[in-house]
Specification:
The chain contains 28 helices and 13 strands.
Length: 704
Amino acid sequence: MTPLIDLLSQKTNISPKNVANILGLLEEGATIPFIARYRKEMTGGASDEQLRAFEEVYGYAKRLLERKEEVLRLIGERGHLSDEVRSRLDAAQSLQEVEDIYRPYKEKKNTRAASAIASGLEPLANLLESGRLEKGEFLQKAAQFVKGTVKSADEAVQGARDILAERYSDDPRERDHWRRQMMEYSSFEIKGAKGLKEDGLYAKLAGKSERISSIPSHRYLALMRGVAEKELSVKISIDTERVAQSIERFRIPRHAKSSKELLMEAYMDGFKRLLFPSLEREVLALIKERSDAQAIATFGKNLSQLLITPPVAKHAILGVDPAYRTGCKLAVVDANGTYVTHAVIYPTPPQSDYEKSAKTVKEFAQRYGIDAVAIGNGTGSRETQEFFARLNREEGLNLAYTVVSEAGASVYSASKIAQEEYPQLDVTIRGAISIAQRLRDPMAALVKIDPKSLGIGQYQHDVNQKLLEKKLGDVTEDLVSRVGVDPNSASVSLLSYVAGVGNKVAKAIVEHREKRGAFRSKAELLKVKGLGAKAYEQCAGFFRIRGGKSVLDNTGVHPESYGAASALMERYDVQGITKEQLPAIARELGIGEATLGDIVAELKKPGFDPRESLPPIAFRSDLTDIKELKPGSIVSGVVRNIADFGAFVDIGLKNDGLIHISQMSEKRIAHPLEVLSVNQQLGRIRVLEVDVEKQKVSLSLKEE
């Protein structure tokens, strides 16, 4: 375990003692949210984000050590294990480095070099590599190897060259050197393929060159999509003259005679035929891995910001799923989030029936006390917003509305979850309910949908799907656990993301409350079938039971600390405890100072939802017409999605406007997430360009 602890400590900058503690907790089956929240003294206060990064490094470190042991065994079995090889393997810091070291010792079949070695030409290759002979002398020597499968001196020379070409391509130092050279100095040469559409998405990329070292992840993913769709071809360019100079300087012996010409040909053949194609594949894989990681990180942050959006609680909400021919589907949910009724209206073309539509909405508003409207942003959204703006102007309803992303609503509507929740309703009505619920409680509604369908991030279908799925699951679990969940009202989907629960136990929790009634304390969760002591330890702190037997059950205080929390409440006025008092009180109660700090914070605000401290959702009662906009106009809006190159902002038009990364700050920024977040309200945005025909608007946050 010591080498692993040392390696992890180096990679994460966490002390060896804390690394050992974290590893112990993970081995015991502890979840990241549990460790981050309830084992701070053991981790040095590492956050869930830091622990997720640690978990990733830990997984890689384990694979690295396991592969080192395997390669040591394989090289040893083939009789090539030396002190030098062992030392280099011990010092290797990456799987790539280990594979480079192992490559020369791999058993090779059906290669030109393997055939030459089998024909007994290795001594001739060694002679050529030494460079001791003149070319004529070497050719005479080659004639001595004409036997068996070798039919001529030329074949012998070619076989020797093939052996040296493979040696060169397998040399770990050469592979490392040229890999780094390609990553730093080479470029992607982009050409149009046979299927290139002249007016298509990829036309502007064809014929261009992109430096590998600086290509943005989103552009690389776009290139690879173009390749997959057979519109583009991408190759890596490299300066072969520079390669030849390097070989002559570092690989050809200075004392080499005229046979160095043959030696140079062998090494250049090794580079062009074997090394470069192999490294080209590796570099493409490395850039893909890097681009995936960047895209997945952006996606994860977008999801985090989307899920943490403040709920619009204690309001009756009208959800509206816009459309043209089939009409706008309406669904009402009450202040408790319970579905009440639905209807279909036709305020948009082709019917444009304002009177009947207005009558239905007015009846709903009066009967159910609707004071908030959630309008989906899909087809017909613009015209639907115009309808509600007109209602407010002409009917005096004062219905505040906001536009909600309906990405994934159709996926949810047809899902098994939706069928179980609303079996009697049509899929289109389920979509309107989903839109209303997204406004009422974004986290509770959105966890029911595959995150890849939420319309955030970039190129989510092009990246490594396993890594993406894990990232999105981790983000959701961390946020759900941070906010807290009421086991008496949460859906199976939401409960399944509580640390330590999972889908099977989530279903058991719902079944238990339906049969036996609401939970009155966290301890009652132990009566749920399948929820054992270990699962209870992991999940109990993340539940919030409102109106339960103890105030502690409506806090993030873990049941293991109820004794200390009760003693604290008996002896002190919790509201008056200061930070300076914590060390002495922690010693008195026999608990860690970080744990005590969390207990005090929870008792000062029992039932506190961290989303309540964020800016509320912005509502509208009117909207903007693109024809009224011109360069220099000032508008307000809400950030809907963030990509590496910019942010898409809803300013009340049919399409979201784009703020390019270069227009976000007077200072240079590396990524839009440094200054913006999903669902952030922007009060002052300057219009740069307006294209009425294409319905596109370019925006800026910079002063004119």
